[in-house]
Amino acid sequence: MPAVVAGVVVTLIFAFLWARDAMTPGRALATGGPEPAGTADAAPIPANEGGPAMPPADAPVNQGMPRSKFLELSTLGLGGVITGIVAGPVIGFAVLPAFTGDELDAVDLGPLDEYPKGEWREATFMLDAAAGEVSRRTAFVRNNGMVDEQPSVTIISNRCVHLGCPVQSGGPRQDEDRETIKTELAELTVTPIQPANFSCPCHGGAYDTEGNRIAGPPVRALDRYKYSIKGGNLFLLEPYSVGEVKGEGAEAMIKAYGLQGPGEHVDGPSGLLYPIQPQDLG
Amino acid sequence: MAVVPPPSRRRKRRMDQVMGLVNIPIDWLEERSGLIGGLKYFLFRKVPSDINWFHTLGSATLTAFLVQAGTGVILAMYYQPHPDKAYESIRYITHDVTLGWLVRGMHRWGASVFIILIFLHMARVFLFGAYKYPRELNWIVGVMLLPLAMLEGFTGYLLPWDQTAYWATVVGINLNGTGPIVGPFLSQFLRSGDEIGADTLTRFYALHMLLLPGAIMGLIGLHLYLVMRLGVSSPPWSEDAAGKERTEAPPSGERGLVRPRARGGRPRGE
What we know:
The structure holds two protein chains of two kinds.
Chain A: H1 2-23, H2 25-31, H3 67-95, E1 107-111, E2 120-126, E3 136-147, E4 150-157, E5 168-170, E6 179-182, E7 187-193, E8 197-199, E9 206-207, E10 213-215, E11 221-230, E12 233-246, E13 253-257
Antiparallel strand pairs in A: 1-12, 2-3, 2-7, 3-4, 5-8, 6-7, 8-9, 9-10, 11-12, 12-13
Chain B: H1 9-33, H2 35-43, H3 57-76, H4 86-95, H5 100-127, H6 136-158, H7 163-177, H8 183-191, H9 198-230
Helix pairs in contact in B: 3-5, 4-5, 5-6, 6-7, 6-9, 7-8
């Protein structure tokens, strides 16, 4: 439909131009008509005696841009505009979706009673049930008990902040006591663990139970998840990055930053090299 | 030596007919396109007399690339870039499709061969000094081809979608993320979001089979054009290239791989 409208508009414009052209008497002559009569009765002269047929121009008549140059530039310009109109959305489509992803919903980690006070549990769940197995993640969860009548929970991500391999808890684990909890959207498994530390199999990064680096190449402490408690269930919210943790358990003071990729500094001078969004977290 | 009798007239006419059968279509094409002449110019151009087997590493690399392109096209007919299906389709190719194991194996091992040949070719050009004037631009084109080939390896490694592929890509993308300033944006772009998922797989697949091979083909074309225009360089010990007269008679009976003589060495056989 828009193409038809555009076609009609273009037709009308050119019809008008043609009609104006045809009705102007001077113009009709210029395009056709007999050639003006020359001085046919002048005596012929030998070729080597005559002067130049046309006197050399002392200066260009038209000081402005020559027609050919104008056409050349307008062709290039028009081509550039068309390329831009096409390439802009295409490049945007290729690049922008990576930066405008939707926020994920909170993940139900089951009743808080599944996480006894002072003990660690390794919870394995899906971040996004629709994405399936590829979104399976593991977090280490510890219930710190009540603080000011609010439950305090530590949820540490198992993603190593060196290059993203999965860290594992160093210490006993009771696989035989693994429980499968069914929630509304998916199911998760919860395994009791007694970590003395967390360590990464890829390049030997090691962390204490608060996630602070104790050895190896990682550049900061392990990431954590925000959480909320609704109707007695523990919900996992978005992850955030941690510079370092002072203190332990419910009294821990966390230097929190917006989530950064593994290997990216969050604090100190080198933190300036990685654009981050600091968050106000206690 | 037996004297060959001159062919009879009938025989000669028949030979002319057979030759015509071959030549007429070629001439038809040549007259209308000039392609045959171009091909002859490319294939039968003059090269220095003292080139050796090391000079074939470039065409070996090209052959490796063509093998990758050919086998890759066939693999794309069976492969499914979806998180739930990719691994199964690879299993299907390997175990169920007739000769699938062979073509996948060619592609998988050919990838390593391609990269190894690139480095050998690069080492040859470097050690022979073949990157010097007037061939600097061709060195630069080659240096642009190198990361494209390595990106092919990186993107192709994810496609089997097994544990190795997944974690190698996690680490590879996060390595990019550690680059200052641009790193986080680069890794976000490669991941196509915050997490590796379906979009990452299809993105890597599209890069692996469309964008990168296209760029590589274009640059190989430019690379070959420059080779043709500038000619092949002599090895550094070349006496011809140094303007010296040959001290040695042309090789009498020797054929095949001949060890180059050291500069200023005694003639062979003394």
